Amino acid sequence: ITSESEYKKLEPHLKILELNNFSFNNQPTLKNINSKYRKLAKNHHPNRDGNEEIFKKIGESKNILNKYYEL
Fold this sequence. Notes:
mainly alpha
């Protein structure tokens, strides 16, 4: 991510994955994103009495962030 405005657009997704301790100058890595996703997905999985809506939001956010950070 090369601009602060681009980073700002991703902030809601970072917040969903509880990665809001990062900033434009200190961005998360793919490893950070995927690690946090696995932890949250495990906790919110519907088969483990988790919330399906939260589980879906977590997956969507991970997919969006992965697209930006793979480049």
